[in-house]
Amino acid sequence: SEHSLAADAERIQIEKRSGFSSEEYLIDDTLRGNWLVNATYLGNKSLTPTYLKATIYYNYGSASQRKETKVFKLGLRNVNQQLFTVSNAVSIVAN
Questions:
Q1: Who contacts 65 (Cβ-Cβ below 8 Å, separation ≥6)?
Q2: Which of 24, 42, 67, 91 has its CA 20 to 30 A from that of 15?
Q3: DSSP 9-46
Q4: What is the model's pTM?
Q5: 24-56 pLDDT, tens digit each
């Protein structure tokens, strides 16, 4: 999804006041496969670096839940960057 001043100026202004932004995506059983997470950094109109933190939960809500956290420093403007992949493959259980 697009997150830019042009697409949603009001949301960007709220985020500038609070100093952060948050977005959540659910990849459940209906969305099987390998997911590629990309970002195109458009800049932030200041010299302060922008960081993107992604927390990936596996088996969310179950006893085997685990999480993985990744942090990216965004600096290349207007370049589509591949950040990471997530696999939501079908589990095969042997009997």
A1: 57, 58, 59
A2: 67
A3: HHHHHHHHHHT---------TTS-EEEEEEEE----SS
A4: 0.70
A5: 888 888 888 999 999 999 888 788 888 999 999
Residues in the chain: 95
Query: Taking a C-beta distance cutoff of 8 angstroms, is the pair 4, 12 a contact?
Result: yes
The string of DSSP letters for 48-94 reads S-EEEEEEEEESTTSTT-EEEEEEEEE--TT-EEEEEEEEEPPP---
pLDDT at 67: 95
Residues 6+ apart with CB under 8 A from 50: 41, 44, 73, 74, 75
Residue with tokens 């949301």: 11
